[in-house]
């Protein structure tokens, strides 16, 4: 993966279709332990949002590559006291080999990437979650042996995960349907970007009809109805999203071999039922594990592990 050495990953749109496929292949090789890589570098984690899977999976991945991790909690750094992003970025550039940032505004991430010479990875912003979707694609490929031609239906809020799913599916030749209530559609610019990548070879469909979206789909996907930073809206969203729950009746409309994914944490009884997330179609725990393998492949590629 020499082409990725030293590069940022701010969005899945930063990758080509070939690069995504090569990352997934590398992640599979690393997971199987047929391949072991060494990369004694230092990863910084600058997380302004709470995290379980992203924090732990990045940390374990870097340790398994022989590197080290510094957790840069904003509350105990000068970031919390108003130090300008560009100043923090230029200082961290002198200490670290790579930086993963989990924050609210995509613009803040882009400022970091502009002022830091080291690679910067989007570990989640309000606009996108590229590392999550790399793990999602890896999980789907494990289950079906291929990605091209499959249909993924996302049901719920048109949030950062929905945005990245559109890009990821378009890059690997999957059809993607996003079913949201009116007014909760994904980002319009990202939708158009995904359609441009798909280039009429696959479908990128937005709909307000979850039942139509799910029919015949191979993958059903959902996320919480109110993301981090939207907690004050959670109560008002509940009645709006009630018909966008992945439950047994909705699952029955999908392909009989369909799998169910959720990026977690899950609000059982809201966007997904207990019976579905714990049922035979669920691949949620494999999906969570694959965060580590996909991110290990990403770190190894960007840092030039040997």
UniProtKB/TrEMBL annotation:
All residue ranges annotated as the Aspartate/ornithine carbamoyltransferase carbamoyl-P binding domain in the record: 7-142
GO BP annotations, alphabetical order: citrulline biosynthetic process; L-arginine biosynthetic process via ornithine
Positions contributing to L-ornithine binding: 160, 223, 227-228
Signal peptide interval: none
Entry binding sites for carbamoyl phosphate: 51-54, 78, 102, 129-132, 263-264, 291
Domain Aspartate/ornithine carbamoyltransferase Asp/Orn-binding as annotated: residue spans: 149-301
UniProt-recorded name of the protein: Ornithine carbamoyltransferase
Native source organism of the sequence: Hassallia byssoidea VB512170
Reaction catalyzed: carbamoyl phosphate + L-ornithine = L-citrulline + phosphate + H(+)
A single cellular component GO annotation: cytoplasm
NCBIfam families to which the protein is assigned, alphabetical: orni_carb_tr, PRK00779.1
């Amino acid at each position: 993966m020499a082409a990725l050495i030293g590069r940022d990953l701010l969005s899945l749109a930063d990758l080509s279709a070939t690069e995504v496929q090569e990352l997934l292949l590398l992640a599979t090789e690393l997971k199987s332990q047929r391949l072991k890589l060494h990369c004694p570098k230092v990863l910084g984690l600058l997380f302004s949002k709470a995290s379980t899977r992203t924090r732990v999976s990045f940390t374990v991945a870097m340790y398994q590559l022989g590197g080290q991790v510094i957790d840069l909690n904003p509350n105990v750094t000068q970031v919390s006291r108003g130090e300008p992003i560009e100043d923090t970025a230029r200082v961290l550039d002198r200490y670290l080999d790579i930086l993963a940032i989990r924050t609210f505004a995509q613009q803040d991430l882009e400022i970091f990437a502009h002022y830091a010479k080291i690679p910067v990875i989007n570990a989640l912003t309000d606009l996108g979650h590229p590392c999550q979707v790399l793990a999602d694609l890896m999980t789907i490929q494990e289950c079906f042996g291929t990605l091209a031609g499959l249909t993924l239906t996302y049901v719920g809020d048109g949030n950062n995960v929905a945005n990245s799913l559109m890009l990821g599916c378009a890059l690997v030749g999957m059809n993607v349907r996003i079913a949201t209530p009116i007014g909760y559609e994904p980002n319009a610019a990202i939708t158009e970007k995904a359609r441009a990548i798909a280039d009429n070879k696959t479908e990128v469909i937005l709909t307000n009809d979850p039942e139509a979206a799910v029919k015949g789909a191979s993958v059903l996907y959902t996320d919480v109805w109110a993301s981090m930073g939207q907690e004050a809206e959670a109560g008002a969203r509940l009645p709006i999203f009630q018909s966008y729950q992945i439950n047994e009746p909705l699952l029955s409309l999908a392909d009989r071999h369909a799998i169910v994914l959720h990026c977690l944490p899950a609000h059982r009884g809201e966007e997904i039922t207990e019976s579905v997330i714990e049922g035979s179609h669920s691949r949620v725990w494999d999906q969570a594990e694959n965060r580590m393998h996909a991110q290990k492949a990403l770190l190894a590629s960007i840092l030039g592990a040997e």
